[in-house]
Write a structure and sequence with these properties.
Alpha-Beta Plaits; Maf protein; alpha+beta; 2 domains; elongated; two-stranded parallel sheet; 232 residues; disordered C terminus; 41% helix; 6 strands
């Protein structure tokens, strides 16, 4: 049916007049779609005929994906849209060719070795990094230490530091990272100090915390001797 339709004279006439469809994709992070819409209105009010191009925006995994499609006769308009958005959102734009932030991070990690220690993110960072094919070349492993007790027992974080600075603090995050990369024997580090009583509102270990700690230890010590990630 479709081959026969393509041979019909009206269809052949339409196809003969058609020009190639081009396109590009911009990616931004940390900006709502409403701001993109506002920028497009400003670009249009500046004399750019947006009716000559097709623009769609979509939020994917925290990133704003902006697709622009156009024909040969609208190349100048498509370029004006790209330049206008890039000028207005320099702080948020990270890709002019559609490359995802996952791929960019993967490229930066090539030739390195990465080990993670996570808490509130619950392993989401490790899951996203390992979702990219070939991640085993640079990803060593991850420890999810959600409770304060797990931070102390699995990563060697001083309970006094947690008590003083709070579980969600730059100081504790740094101590977790140091503990994740510090060389240890074949078994996870056990804190020699007993954690202080938790203040109200702190993360308290769940009833099945011992089982969770054992599972996290098995997952986190497989590559515990991986060297730390360094920046050149």
């Amino acid at each position: 049916m479709w081959p026969a339709a393509l041979e019909a004279e009206p269809v052949r006439g339409v196809l003969a007049r058609a020009t190639p469809l081009h396109g590009y994709t911009l990616r931004m992070f940390g900006v709502p779609e409403s701001e993109i819409a506002k920028s497009l209105r400003e670009i249009e009010s500046g004399g750019v005929d947006l009716g000559a191009v097709e623009i769609t925006t979509c939020l994917r995994r925290g990133e704003i994906e902006i697709d622009v499609r156009y024909r040969d006769e609208a190349v100048g308009i498509a370029d004006a849209v790209r330049e206008g958005l890039a000028e207005r959102h320099q702080r948020h734009l990270f890709s002019l060719d559609g490359e995802t932030i996952d791929s960019q991070v993967a490229a930066l990690l090539k030739g390195r070795r990465l080990g993670l220690a996570e808490s509130c993110s619950g392993g989401l960072l490790a899951a996203r990094i390992t979702d990219v094919p070939g991640a085993s070349e640079y990803m060593a492993g991850s420890v999810v230490a959600y409770s304060n007790e797990a931070k102390a027992e699995l990563l060697g974080v001083d309970p006094a530091l947690i008590e003083e600075k709070g579980a969600v603090s730059p100081e504790v995050a740094e101590a977790m990272a140091i503990g994740r990369h510090r060389p240890r024997p074949g078994h996870p580090r056990r804190s020699r100090r007993h954690p202080r009583p938790l203040r109200p509102g702190r993360h308290a270990p769940a009833a099945d915390a011992p089982q969770r700690r054992r599972a996290a230890a098995l997952a986190g010590t497989a590559h515990s001797r991986a060297p730390p990630l360094t920046h050149s």
